[in-house]
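I'd like us to work through together how a protein chain folds, taking it slowly. To get us started, please write out a protein record for me. Label the sequence line and the structure token line clearly, so we can match residues to local backbone shapes. Once you have written the record down, we can walk along the chain together.
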Amino acid sequence: MRRFMSCFGILLIGIANATIKEDTNYWRALSEKELKEALSNKLNANKARNVIVFVGDGMSPDTVTASRIYRGGEASYLAWEKFPHIGILKTYNVDKQVPDSASTATALFGGVKTNHEVVGVNANVPLGDCNASLNTDNHVDSIVSWAQAAGKDTGFVTTTRVTHATPAPLYAHAANRRWECESAMQKTDNRCKDIARQLVENRPGKNIKVIMGGGRQTMKSNATATEFDPIDTWACKRQDGRDLIEEWRRDKESRNLLYSVVENNEQLSRVNTRKVDYLLGIFANGHISMDWNREKGPKGQPSLEQMTVTALKILQRSKHGYLLVVEGGLIDFAHHRGHAAQALLETVRLSDAIDATLKMIDTDVTLVIVTSDHAHSMTFNGYSDRGSNVLGIAQKSKIYNIPYTVLTYSIGGPNNIAYTVKNNASVRIDPSLENTTSFTYSQQAAIVSDEAYHGGGDVAVYAIGPFAHLFHSVHEQNYVARVIAHAARIGPRSNSVGSYGYDVAIRVFFCYGVLLLSHNWR
């Protein structure tokens, strides 16, 4: 009965939408409504007690648009698309026009642009230069370090390995993003710690209260594959005999801290968030499985929403506020393999996590930022009809009369090959002969390489809460960390407009005025 009523409701909505006449009056009324909403917005200059940063890895503007349509149609919105303040971020590296995730995460979280594929270090560290990375003058401290120094609790959750390129700059300094475990490093680099060790042994990593994601094989030697959890062949595998998960546990015991270590849905659901201060959840050898193929049973892996909600419940007990970073990392993973349907679903799952978050927080004192680290090579093609399946066929080519899909890739991997040989001629494959809406379908690509590559285009940043209005224009990507520092009064402070700079200046001038008056009275 419940399913019938749900379907009946959807049918009524569809009928209602079909009967709406989108004439002049409709569009003017809609724009008037939007204008009233815009005029009602008030700038929030409160101190941000809490900060939550959501990163959709590889979530290009075309990905956002296609995911919105995939989820609810052209007129719908994803969770963050009604945030009152939006800006544009330039994502280039110091040495590359098109960036990777480690360098962009260093910019986002540390406020410093750097070289391609390095982690938490500035541009004085060339890729792979261990010695240069040991120089602390080259280290870029992150918003996690700043928040902890201010007494705030910190955490991060990701659908990738916890040692992967995006979360790593939150706590590590490395000359190569691939140094997730020691087996990826040369013997000549043995003076440098791998990223997993830095998470467990160094500050700020060892003081991060909530850590959830994949990456068992980078943290624990002799990790084994299971039916639902294969070894990640794209990442290193720890071989030094160490179990950093157990070392994390022993560190918390030695400090008499309340902690929990979990590795599946059942264990996560049993966590008493009122009594646990430190939570380590490692749910996969490599990345957590794509949502369409994720094992959702008791022994399976949690969704991004489940991890985010659990993290918030723990961090919200902080006396001095908190910082939480959430990465929807598999959007990028899907794009790299040319699977548009998977990328769109992962984007929708990020939206679900943000929806759940907004129900749990007060945006008067919590700054929420949603952005991407870089764009991707997926393109949104013309000219499909309104209401078409965004994963379907757009139309036929006007020259060769062969259909093409709404979404394609400018550059893709071997599975994205678009052409075949027929009668000694190169002919584009007809995608209408396949199920283009399937999660395993690979959209066609104009250029074929080892995989689909990142794009160099700008990405959007959306914000709500204290000082969200500081996102208002085209910004350098490292500006995001600066806004967080200003809003929460943490981290580096400028003499002019720093987090405390304005307050300090006012106090100085006030005291100076008092002294002058006192002198005159004499």
User: Anything to note?
Assistant: Confidence is low (pLDDT under 50) at residues 1-16, 494-522. The first strand starts at residue 50 and ends at 56. The CA atoms of residues 246 and 320 lie 29 Å apart.
